[in-house]
Structure formats: structure tokens, C-alpha cells
Amino acid sequence: MSARDKNPLSSPANWSASTRLVHGGVERSQHGETAEPIYLNSGYVYPDSDDAAARFKGDSPGHIYSRFSNPTVETFQDRMAMLEGAESARGTATGMAAVTVSLMSQVRAGDHVVAARALFGSCRYVVEDFLPRWGVETTLVDGEDPQNFARAMKPNTKAVFIESPTNPTLSLVDIAAVADIAHAHNAVLIVDNVFATALWQHPLELGADLVVYSATKHIDGQGRVLGGVVLGSQELIGGDIHAFIRQTGPSMSPFNAWVLAKGVETLPVRVRAMTDSAARLAEFLADHPKIERVYYPHHKSHPQYELAKRQMEAGSSMIAFEVKGGQAGAFAAADGLAVIRISNNLGDAKSIITHPTTTTHQRFEEEVRLEQGITPGLLRLSVGLEDTNDLLKDLDFALSAV
């Protein structure tokens, strides 16, 4: 045994989270490269026919086809599983692929899904429009009261789907309470944890069965590539999730997996800095005379502040705020910004602002938007890595035009 082997830190089990995100999941080639290699290949060579047969039967480890698995994708999956505290993970081509995989893999025609009403527009489309096409009944409820989920459950309910905090108004769902309700009815709880990030909220510890992310957001953090990931138990991920991806093909590309694996290395540093800035900006906006209301989970004005403090370790990088003067006021504020740019992405190193009524949630009728608190004056701000004082000055100047 070498001196290195005797070191307790030779085992990843003894690493802290930040160390795991830098070193986890690496399988170096014979060249001993420092950075993880990119395996840009679709197929794999077998040493003999018996090995090929064994791999296809699942009796022998090894890759078969990159639609199923790929060494670079596995590095990203392993790092995300370490961060999330999950037994297993699967990467997908996009965040919406992760959402669709997590839901479609758990239901069959004749089943029922309960979801919170406040969802990202595309997520709500999957629940409200797409699933019913395949014979899956769905019910949308106000997610702020857990008892609404209890009242909606049926004998054929197989899955419950929620976001917390929600997009874009940052309302919260009590994950632990809803997990108890779902499990009492033998249903799987799926949590979209994008806004909170894996750093500040841990749905699996709160009772969730599956956690999904758009890796395009904070995980990449640079606006470079698309990707998604589903995490949970080995039973769920290695069973229905893996089978769905294998047979239908919403697979993550090796190049994107490599970019995302490198992004994960700096995720804690980036998200902490963005969160610190967001907390300061929320305080500024809450006191500004041109602002009607601010939504930030760890600001005392948030109506679910106590739940936020209990469920989230920090308020994360997203803020929503309502500008006086409706849509005209919101447009004037957004158009007056010089550092913060107008875009519908989030979790980026660059601060980004969008007007949900006319972008991410524009396809909904006004009644549906207002039901979720999406007013014409609402703006959603993703706080980046710029100097906080520059962001404060930028917002102050822009709001003076309202």
C-alpha cells in the first residue's frame, strides 16, 4: 500500500462537497491528463463477442452506445450525484428533457399526476397539455397550501410535480409536507430545484424522490451549453429513468457534459457570490419608492419567510419585483439598464432581467398569469457576478426613468 493509499482523503467518501465537485467522477486515460477527457464518440469496441453479449444483457460493465452512456457524461453525472447527495443521476439534452423524462417515466395511460399551478411555462405545458394526450390525467393546485395536494390525490395518482421556489414569483412549496402526502398515496415526488440550486436546498433530504435541474442555468453558469439532469435513488434512476432515456434518446452530448462538469467545479464559489449580491439587491429594491413589491425568499417581506428559512439555507440568486406603472413601468426600468441585460436565461455569470408576462409566460391567458402573481409590472432578475455596487447603481438609474 502506497503512502497515498494510507491517506484518509484517498477516498472520495471523506471529501467535502467542494472537493468532490473538483475531483469527483474522474477516470483518467492512459495519458494521465489533468483535465477530464472528452470522449466524443458514439460507439465502443468489444474485446470479443462474449463481452458484447454480456454488456447488452447487463451482465458486464462497460459502454455500449453513447445514447445509453458515455464516460464524459458519467463524470458529470457522478459529480452532480455527489453534490445532491443522490445515489444516481442521468444527464439529458436539456432541462426540459429532464422534466419530461422524470414525469413520463413514472406514468402510464390511466394514471394521474398532481402538480403545483405555479410552474415555468414549458413545465406547465408538459403537465397540462402534453401528458393528457397520452391518457394521463392531471390536476393543478395552489402549491402554497400542502393540503391542496392532499385533496387532489386519487387512487391512481402516481406522481406529484413541484417547483420551489417557483418561476417567476419565487413562491414556495413545503417540500417535506408534500413528500409525506405523496408517499402516503404511493406516489413519487419530483422537485424542480433550479431556482434554489443544489447548494441552498436539498429536496432528497426533505423527502423528494427525484430532483431535476436545467443544467443550462447555474450549473453551466456561463450561457454556453444546454443540458439537464435527473437525480434520485439507484432504483428509480437505474430503472425507469435509464430505460426511458435509452429507448427514446433525450441524451446529453459528451461535449456539453464536459463543459457542465467543468462548470460544476466552480458552482459553490459562483452561487455564493451571486446569492450575497442578490440579498443586497433585494434590500435595496424593497426600500425603493418605484417598487410595488419584492419577492426574495430570505427577505423578511416574503410571505413564506419562515418556510424559506427552514427549507433553504440561503435565498439564492433570483429576485422578482413589481415596478409601479405596470408594463410600461417595467419596460422603462428594463430598457434603462446598462450592466444588467435583457434575456430569458438565468443562473448566468452575467446579470439578466426578463419580463415574464411577455416572454416566459406569454402563452398563458392573463387570468392564468394573474392567478400565479405574474402582473404586467413584474420583472425577474437573475443576479450575476458583477460588482454588487455596479448592479445597485444600474438599478437605481434605471428606476429613476419610471
CATH class of the largest domain: Alpha Beta
The SS-based structural class is alpha/beta
Order of helices and strands: HHHHEHEHEHEHEHEEHHHEHEHEEHEH
CATH architecture of the largest domain: 3-Layer(aba) Sandwich
| Count of individual beta strands | 12
- Count of all domains: 2
- Could you say what the CATH topology of the largest domain is called? Aspartate Aminotransferase, domain 2
- What is the strand arrangement across the widest sheet? 1-7-6-5-4-2-3
Q: Extract low-pLDDT stretches.
A: none
Spatial extent as radius of gyration? 22 Å
- CATH superfamily of the largest domain, by name, is Type I PLP-dependent aspartate aminotransferase-like (Major domain)
* Quaternary class: single chain
The percentage of residues in β strands lies in 5-15%
Question: End-to-end span in angstroms?
Answer: 70 Å
Envelope shape: globular
Range of helix content:
25-40%
Plain-language structure description:
With about 400 residues, the protein is an alpha/beta fold. The protein folds into two domains: about 10-265, 3-Layer(aba) Sandwich (Aspartate Aminotransferase, domain 2), CATH 3.40.640; about 265-400, Alpha-Beta Complex (Aspartate Aminotransferase, domain 1). Helix content is about 40%, strand content about 15%. The protein has 16 helices and twelve strands. The strands form two sheets. A seven-stranded mixed beta sheet has the order 1-7-6-5-4-2-3, with helices on both faces. Helix 6 links the parallel strand 2 and strand 3. The chain is globular and about 70 Å long. The mean pLDDT is about 95.
